[in-house]
Amino acid sequence: MTRHDTTQGTSILRQPKEVWAVGFASVVAFMGIGLVDPILPAIAKELSATPTQTELLFTSYLLITGIAMFFTSWLSSRIGAKRTLMIGLALIVLFALAAALSGSVEDVIAFRAGWGLGNALFISTALATIVGAASGGTSSAIILYEAALGLGIAIGPLLGGLLGTVSWRGPFFGTAVLMAVAFIAISVLLGKEDRAARVPTRLSAPFRALANPAIAILAAAALFYNIGFFVLLAYTPFPLHMEAIGLGLVFFGWGLSVAVTSVWIAPLLTARLRRTTVLGTVLPLLTIDLVAAGVFIDSQLGLILCVIVGGMLLGVLNTVLTESVMEATDLPRSVASSAYSGVRFLGGAAAPPLATLLAATFFPAMPYYVAGGSVLIAAIIVLCGVKQLARVNSGAEELVVEAEAITAGELA
């Protein structure tokens, strides 16, 4: 099957209602990744919180998401995709609303953790649900899913910035309302599942997968890479010194860059170069971009350009890293992805508060230099493990595999 082969089935615009319902919910779920970014300074001001405390909004969300990823395949294989989706959506509604009504930063941090659990349950199941419900062939369903992912990644910061101009509580209320609509749509439009088709996954499977050398190498590289990812995303709103709407527009551009390169540029590169070659080239480029962010930290325009360029590089790396995980072993893809994602989220969880602590202890540019060094370590890990990663340089994946890779990559 060729990428985005539209010869099968019907047009993307002729999908059944079930697909549109899950697609809409997917857009909202992916928005949650960058939603709080533009309102971090506002939260710090309104709740009398330190920058490090506000960065814990990312840490609690990503830490719980990472832990949950080890268990989502086990749960969905037993209770079914629809129930898993609905539990995830219900948790997001509950905890987003609770965060909006909170009176302290500690409460918001705790409720973001619950939000992370709901997001892990939903996103890990959404792709399979869309593919299973599609009547126009897998190709059209995956194009819709990729479009939902890209829209969510880009719109999240923009919506956060727009609603954040009214109040820092606005983005949380907005998410709760949108997810409530998505919950109703899925409960009404998504049909019953065939229980006999479920294949239970062992609870220990993702942990056992980490014993595989290829998975261990990629997970370790992703852990250090994710430190760079989340320093750029979560720390940058503070040195930019912009209002919520300005930050929303900047990170809308960042999200759009991530989406475009992950969906279009990464496949073009891997069609012409080995995946390990792409990783060994783009990771050092990201190191250079992060060091440049440190150099231009006092220039608003310079820092914005580093954010946008960083988004382009991050989109390629997200996709290629996770495609590599999918191809590295004979393990079920859901198991390999769960193991890899669980580890990489640890880097994402640690990075935001580490960045503000480094800035307070040394100087404002220090987080970018440390992040650049961390990404360079990721590049060295990949280059030293080329022999163990020989399988990842096989031919292009089928369309479903590509979408699975993009999904897992964009989760963090």
TrEMBL record:
GO MF annotation terms: transmembrane transporter activity
Keywords of the record: Membrane, Transmembrane, Transmembrane helix
InterPro entries: MFS, MFS_dom, MFS_trans_sf, Tet-R_TetA/multi-R_MdtG-like, YfmO-like
Compartments, record wording: Cell membrane
Domain Major facilitator superfamily (MFS) profile: 18-390
Principal location class: membrane
Transmembrane intervals: 20-44, 56-77, 84-103, 109-131, 143-166, 172-190, 210-238, 244-266, 278-296, 302-321, 342-362, 368-386
Record membrane topology: Multi-pass membrane protein
GO CC annotation: plasma membrane
Name of this chain's protein: MFS transporter
